[in-house]
Amino acid sequence: MLIRKLNACDEFVAGDGTLLRELLHPDKQPLALRYSLAHAIVPAGQTSYPHSLKTSEVYYILSGMGEMHIDDESQRVEPGDTIYIPPDAEQFIYNSGTEPLVFICIVDPAWRQEDETVYGDRPSS
To answer: Which CATH class for the 11-108 domain?
Structure first.
């Protein structure tokens, strides 16, 4: 049995500028998984860097309020929302609230640095 405690996972700044803790990744644990699972935080008033992945991604919002941008679309997001991000879509998320925007990220197949492209500066909000 493998149980990962969130606070036991190292926090780091991901390529898109979010605070990330990798919970499960098939390259880091002996697991038969196709996907990777991470916990992400965007501080109040902050925006992640626009980026794209060659793979699909899903966000599940745990707490906070935000605005999700995928290609030319944007929509308000809140706790309980699930967001599908297709492969190669340019995306970023803005924390429009006063508390941290906290969400789970699932990348399938599992995230690899060579599959991610980060574009320029954070957008101004």
So the answer is: mainly beta
